[in-house]
């Protein structure tokens, strides 16, 4: 098995993060997600408050189109807000993980797109039926039942916007990934085993 | 393993049909695709010539929107053309396969949608990178290299139209399937084994 990096993209409430964590554990790999990458950014001098504002900006589709217009009008790196510098720093960090041969599982953060030139990484998408995701949000994530519907919609919409903002691609489209698994029909550890099966069976390229 | 029926939907040139055939063989299941279902229709009295015309109609997106308009305007079964009767007969045949507990693999024919109420069927989508599909079309299907690009585009567009015509849904969207596999990274028999792994690991419902 030669994937140094496995990226997990996922719908909210599909258990994708859990899959990523257990996969890392089973493989003896490091685990990265937004929380850890944000910690690293803060250690590197970024303000947590500003980072959170910038996240909100990327996830707001109206502002996305505004910012895109500015970008298209030719505003260069000197005019980059903290916004851009923070994201670029995280994406560069992810790229350096790959270049250094670090073995890890990365959940979210457009990692599949950031690492698209690395041929031996494996990209997985986890999703689930709507009712299953509502149930997980309420039972496992402690979401208030009356908020669950809206939250599902908003978080995934935000993810779609964030992804499009940084990649120009449509989040969730099968062509982005090596395999997509509907987690509504399997236990988490069985999904992890399916992914490991794919990692063992897939062909790899000389790099 | 309790799926009596596995449906395979696939991009042109992804090897999906081969996966379906080998899966059926490995499981000791029957195998159905357009060819066999058309044979059955002809045996049941449908004219092959008219069937082929109707296929073309469903795969033409302009006519799809026209026909849809007629449908929305409330034209009932008496006004159905041979067109509709032929498709309905095939879809009813597929439904009877499921009701009878027949163990089979069905490739294409919107079978995932036709059988959407049967909880224990498994629906798989097979796709592949563009270059791999061109290569398979030329090397394995005998397509003329100068026709391959157009053919890929046309066949998949036709599939998308046919699927939308009959289901109202978007073909290829992950939510239609239990698992989607990029066949560009694995041998056909390994993909078959992955599917069997899914069939063995997934949860089933009392029906």
Kindly describe this structure.
The structure is a homodimer of 207-residue chains. The first copy, chain A, is α/β, with parallel strands linked by helices. Chain A has one domain (5-199): 3-Layer(aba) Sandwich (Rossmann fold). Helix content of chain A is 56%, strand content 11%. In chain A, strands 2-3-1-4-5 form a five-stranded parallel beta sheet. The model of chain A is unreliable at 72-80 (pLDDT under 50). The A-B interface holds A 125, 127, 172, 174-175, 177-182, 185-187, 190, 193-194, 197-198, 201-203 and B 125, 127, 172, 174-175, 177-182, 185-187, 190, 193-194, 197-198, 201-203.
Strand order of the largest sheet of chain A: 2-3-1-4-5
Radius of gyration of chain A: 17 Å
Strand content of chain A: 5-15%
Number of helices of chain A: 9
**Count of the separate structural domains of chain A:** 1
CATH class of chain A: Alpha Beta
Overall 3D geometry of chain A? globular
Low-pLDDT segments of chain A: 72-80
CATH superfamily of chain A: P-loop containing nucleotide triphosphate hydrolases
Structural class of chain A: alpha/beta
Q: Which pair of chains forms the biggest interface, and how many residues does each contribute?
A: A-B, 22 and 22 residues
Gross CATH architecture of chain A? 3-Layer(aba) Sandwich
The CATH topology label of chain A is Rossmann fold
Number of strands of chain A: 5
Distance between the termini of chain A: 15 Å
Give the biggest beta sheet of chain A. 5 strands, parallel
Q: Oligomeric form of this entry?
A: homodimer
Please give the share of residues in helix of chain A. Answer: 55-70%
Mean pLDDT of chain A: 87
Compressed to H and E, one letter per element, the order of chain A equals EHEHHHHEHEHHEH
């Amino acid at each position: 098995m030669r994937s140094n990096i496995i990226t997990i993209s996922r719908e909210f409430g599909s258990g994708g993060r859990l899959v990523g964590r257990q996969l890392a554990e089973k493989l003896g790999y490091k685990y990265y997600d937004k929380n850890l990458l944000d910690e690293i950014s803060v250690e590197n001098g970024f303000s947590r408050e500003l980072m959170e504002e910038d996240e909100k900006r990327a996830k707001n589709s109206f502002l996305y189109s505004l910012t895109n217009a500015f970008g298209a009008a030719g505003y260069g790196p000197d005019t980059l807000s903290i916004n851009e510098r923070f994201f670029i720093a995280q994406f560069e960090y992810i790229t350096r993980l790959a270049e250094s041969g670090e073995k890890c599982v990365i959940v979210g953060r457009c990692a599949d797109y950031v690492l698209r030139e690395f041929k031996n990484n494996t990209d997985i998408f986890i999703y689930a039926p709507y009712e299953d995701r509502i149930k997980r949000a309420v039972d496992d994530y402690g979401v208030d039942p009356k908020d669950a519907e809206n939250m599902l919609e908003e978080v995934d919409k935000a993810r779609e916007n964030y992804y499009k903002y940084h990649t120009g691609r449509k989040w969730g489209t099968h062509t982005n990934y090596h395999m997509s698994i509907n987690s509504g029909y399997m236990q988490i550890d069985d999904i992890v085993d399916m992914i490991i099966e794919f990692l063992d069976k897939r062909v790899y390229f000389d790099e």
